[in-house]
Amino acid sequence: MKKDVRLLIKGTHISFNNVENDNEQFENIDEIFTETTGIYNVKDGKHYIRYEEKSEDGMQTSRNLLKIDGENVELIKKGYGATHLYFTEGETNYTYYQTVMGKLFVGVNSKKIVIEESEEKIAVRIEYELIMNEEKVSDSIIEVKIRTLF
Fold it and tell me: Of 20, 101, 128, 150, most Cβ neighbours within 10 A?
């Protein structure tokens, strides 16, 4: 059965900048909030949520599919910021991420995945490391709250 849903998405990226002279590290925290609507469906015990997301300037759109399967989460983005991310706790998965400058090869080391389900909502929290050129570039968190629209 398909349902209309509301999604609240928060992305947090904590990157570290080293200062060579003083051997100090400075944190840079970047947070992104998105609120949108989508379509929810469940099939063979897997949750599927289709939704669209606008770029920060509102000029571009991505069509997204979020799959939640037990303890695993998959995010497929087409259009703006195209990518195919797999999150499996304790595993590192590699993929390409499309930017205006071209494709980047990135790794996602999933540290912790928490999925809470009830009749009215699903909440997902994914803590992961973003890896580029075999080095960690940020600690990241994605939080998604999905509620049915009445």
Answer: 128
